Amino acid sequence: MKRAKTISRLVLGMLLAFGFADVQAQEWKEKGEWLKKLEAAKKAEGNRMIQYDAQPNYANWGGVTLFFKKTYGIDIPPDMKGSSATMAALVKERSSTVADVAYYNSVIAAQAAAKGVHQAYKPMGWDKIPADNKDPDGKWFSVHQGVIAFIVNTDALKKKNLAVPQCWADLLKPEYKGLVAYDDPTVHGTAWESIFAANIALGGSTKDVKPGVEYLKKLDANILRYSRDTSYNPSLRGEIGIWLNADGNGYKMKHEDGGPIEVVIPCEGTIGTPLGMGLVTWAKRPLLAKAYLDWLFSPEAQGIWADSFWQPIISEYATESAKKKMKPLHGSYDKVKSVSILEKQDIIDPYKQAWLKEIKRN
């Protein structure tokens, strides 16, 4: 019964996501060239391909891949790796990998490209992707983005008669002990962005993570756990009161899953978190992979993400209905601070090591 409910929610999420701009989608379909490319790829390579890090509840990948299968006949099974685990797997597997494409936090996508696990490809819509969200040679490119926020289960807080926190400083208060969580930042790219958001909000930079480390050491007293698995479902169920993660996941919990969830943009500020893709160097189905990557930048796919509460990287494909629903309970998107993906790249490993040494410890 539990599995049936999960599948029903997935299908519901997919159906709710079909508010994309119909005119734009129809115009794109009428070009016809992409469909010819896809059909040629299917004849050569079959109707199944592999994406590393295709978690159904993250960024509505379940709805995106289900739509692709139902509409175009290509099966892409779920894969529960996080960003760092995906990069590690591809580095380890090299020419033996089964993956055709990979999805990551864009900082880790750039790292993976530097390690040689991506081949160059410039998908359809390349010129519309902002320059700071793609490698000039096409070895990685962002597909959508979110904002690091507090995802709050209000029922969990009401049980303890607690107010919804509005600032990073609030999370340090003793009354929130055991109610706060973020996932292991050595495994999940969005979790790393979460601790980096704290660093930037509290005065750190891409050269200095001391403010973030000191804050996280204090926050450790209130942390329930640092999970190697995504905390999406535990947060939805109220096992976690406050999850530090991307805003889109919170809006999906609220508007699609019907959970008692609110999204808070912390008063001291936060950062955006672009997420990207790469074409695996040793892809066994490169024609299918290229056609799929093309589609991810179409009005269809970008519109599905917009209605799944993730900002499409091609902003003109955002829908008005999505914009109306993406409203935080507290705080403002004016508090989002811009940080270069390439500047973040230099600090990601040192910050992970500092976290392991100073916070997790074992």
Structure commentary:
With 362 residues, the protein is an alpha/beta fold. It folds into two domains: 2-144 and 273-323, D-Maltodextrin-Binding Protein, domain 2, CATH 3.40.190; 146-271 and 328-360, D-Maltodextrin-Binding Protein, domain 2 (3-Layer(aba) Sandwich). The protein contains 15 helices and ten strands. The longest helix has 20 residues, at 341-360. The two termini are 38 Å apart. 53% of the residues are buried.
What are its keywords?
alpha/beta, 2 domains, D-Maltodextrin-Binding Protein, domain 2, 10-stranded mixed β-sheet, 44% helix, globular, 10 strands, 362 residues
**Shape category:** globular
H and E string: HHHEHHEHEEHEHHHEHEEHHEHEH
Our count of helices gives: 15
Radius of gyration: 20 Å
CA-to-CA gap between the ends?
38 Å
Number of domains: 2
CATH topology of the largest domain: D-Maltodextrin-Binding Protein, domain 2
Just give the CATH class of the largest domain.
Answer: Alpha Beta
| Spans where pLDDT lies below 50 across 5 or more residues | 1-23
Structural class: alpha/beta
Tell me, rounded to a whole number, the average pLDDT: 90
Main sheet overview: 10 strands, mixed
What's the name of the CATH homologous superfamily of the largest domain? Periplasmic binding protein-like II
Architecture per CATH nomenclature, i.e. the level-2 architecture of the largest domain = 3-Layer(aba) Sandwich
- Strand segment count: 10
**Per DSSP, what share of the residues sits in E-state strands of 2 or more residues?**
5-15%
- Fraction of residues in H or I helices: 40-55%
